Amino acid sequence: MPLEEAINYTPTLGRYNETTFSRDSDLANLDGFLYFITIKTKNGVLHKIGITKRNVYARFPNKKNIKVIFLIKGRLESVYTLEQSLLEIFSDNLYRADKGFDGRTETLILTEEEEKVLVEILENEAKGTRFEIIDSENSQ
Questions:
Q1: What is the DSSP letter of 100?
Q2: What pLDDT is stored for residue 56 in this prediction?
Q3: Please, are residues 132 and 72 in contact by the beta-carbon 8 Å criterion?
Q4: Which regions of the chain are under pLDDT 50?
Q5: What gap in Å lies between CA 47 and CA 58, rounded to an integer?
Q6: Beta strand 94-95 with 132-136: parallel, antiparallel or unpaired?
Q7: Which domain holds residue 112?
Q8: Distance between the two ends of the chain, CA-based, in angstroms?
Q9: CB atoms within 10 A of CB 29
Q10: Residue-wise pLDDT tens digits, 89-116
Q11: At what angle do helices 112-126 and 76-89 cross, to 10 degrees?
């Protein structure tokens, strides 16, 4: 991101937030998915953490450019909370991807070791009863 754009950058709160869930318990209780993927871009490979109410491949229709590392299912509010926690833990790795890239505020640049740490966190979270592992590189 150019310096001028960085100075004037105002982060968005995204589609979901704690206030939204407190006002709409039906929304908070819907099934949601937290995905951890890699995305091939013209500048290299980025990691992305995000949540969706739909299939991750519907979220990213260009399937050839993404690889699912980990995908879990749970209450939408719970996957949102986990997503926010992960983004906080890995805040030093945040990278703002190119304009026009949907979800570019949750992209990261991770080393192999950092990727493994993030997967371990997800595996530990999924051991509880709040989440169900839908897809994992380790399950293949």
A1: T
A2: 83
A3: yes
A4: 9-13, 140
A5: 18
A6: unpaired
A7: 3-139
A8: 37
A9: 13
A10: 999 998 876 665 555 567 899 999 999 9
A11: 150
